[in-house]
Design goal:
Strand order of the largest sheet: 5-4-3-6-7
Number of strands: 7
Helix content: 40-55%
Radius of gyration: 17 Å
Number of domains: 1
CATH superfamily: Glutaredoxin
Shape: globular
Strand content: 15-25%
CATH architecture: 3-Layer(aba) Sandwich
CATH topology: Glutaredoxin
Distance between the termini: 37 Å
Structural class: alpha/beta
Length: 160
Amino acid sequence: MKKLTIFLIVLLFSSFSFQEKKIPSYTITTLDGEEKDLKNVLNQNGYSIIVFWKAWSSPDKLELDAINSKYEEWKAETEIKVIAIAISDARRLANAKRVIASKNWQFDIYTDISNEAKSVFNLKNTPHTMIVNKEGEIVKQWTGYIFEDEENYIDFLRNN
């Protein structure tokens, strides 16, 4: 009985901590080198999809390509804002910029050359995708990419 009580208390607190997880103050950099706080670039009128990715990762680029192919349709339907954040150290930044230039993605792209995202958001793998509401709360997260995963994102938004 004691173990069950402890388990339920832990479960209760872990549920609250996820539900109340807000985007912390976190510095991202534009491709032109301007620093911004992630909280200030979120969609103030609705949901934001944030994708943390690495330029050398094929699954990461596939996910961003898939999101880009649906982005205009999603924006018209849900007023969503997509923010892609390349996790790259300073010496690999040129490669990330080459990938970005070759892709013609239509959403906002930033970099994290300090690699702070790993600790700030407890990232284990990329792509790491989160949906954030207009209050800045993380309401859903996915790690990794499977073909047509992006449909889960829009389905979540349609139902919330």
